Amino acid sequence: MNGKVHITVCEGRNLIKCEPYCVISFDPSAKEAKTEVHNTTQNPTWQKKFSFELPTVYTNVMVKVLVMDENKLTKDVVLGRINIPLSNLKDKEEIAQWYSIVNKEDPKNGKGEIFLRLMVDTKDSQPEVEQLDLSKANKQQMADALEDLQGRLLEANSENSELVEKINSLFADMYYTYCNPRKLGVLEVQVISGRELPAKDLMGDKDNFFKSTSDPYCKLACGGKLVSTTAKKSTVNPDWNETFSLPVMHAGEELVIDIFDKDLIGKDEFMGQVRVLVGDIIRLSPPSIEQTYPLKPKKYMSASKIKKVKGTLKIALKYTAEKQDTQEEVVPTKLKRKEDLLIMAEKVRDNLLERIALSNDERSLKKHANC
Prior knowledge:
Layout: E1 4-13, E2 20-26, E3 32-34, E4 45-53, E5 62-69, E6 77-85, E7 95-100, E8 113-121, H1 139-157, H2 161-179, E9 185-195, E10 201-203, E11 211-213, E12 216-222, E13 225-228, E14 239-248, E15 254-261, E16 269-277, H3 278-282, E17 288-294, H4 303-306, E18 312-321, H5 337-367
Antiparallel strand pairs: 1-4, 1-8, 2-3, 2-5, 5-6, 7-8, 9-14, 9-18, 10-11, 12-13, 12-15, 15-16, 17-18
Helix pairs in contact: 1-2, 1-5, 2-5
């Protein structure tokens, strides 16, 4: 490999009012990459990094950024283009600046600028992580691989803490899959009702044309299990009265309830969220509660979207402990992310190695069973 070119699409400013996204291509490669689509805005923020492999000769190669406006009903509209010759870039020297959008065919759309970071690295210093052959894995191999991943996560934390949170959840999934932790108990959740939820749809009838309403439903997550209520048609004051049983794996577990507006066309729209620390319920005597919670925004939402979150959700919660041989004190904890990752990584590594060793012993016994 001759190296890579790294391109970060940071943000845009003074675009026409649209739902913008960017498509990045690296000529002469046919490979393309795409940022996420932002809801209507003139000043989007992406902070999305892409890497492309360099050809042997790249003096006449262009980095092409196509700025688009998503249109759900018709074809997406080209706002403009940015072309950057790689010959302008020196090895391992980052260029970070605003680039004007150019649209010669339709100048009224070609307004605003995009901030890009570009760097050519002819001797890529970030080697790709090789997939471990678990049948031959040893403790040092796995420790080195996990340490390397941990270092990259902590380095990324300052740039994108949402990414770290997603990777953290992956470690948790591996922990539950391979380590078989003992379940503490079960949380029974009754989703009762929602009130004064955001209106997301325009509906019409003979008595009240263009009445603003929604088709709300809830997604519940706890202990690695995800369930959903039914969607209630054309209301901002839904009554569900639906009950679910969710596993509780540790006292630091959170019950997360997201409310969405069901759409037949396009992506379901987020309406609000309720988060409850299970440890707060466990400490109650008896461990049950019925309460109305205000809806809150998700992390990392834009200010314009946060303003649209409103309403309340009424739920009833009841915790039932699993029967255990010995009585253990349950202490609700919330580890810092760095500690959480290290603990989970260590448990995943040790349990995988133990399973590999057992698997090797079993194969050896089968091989000599008829000796």
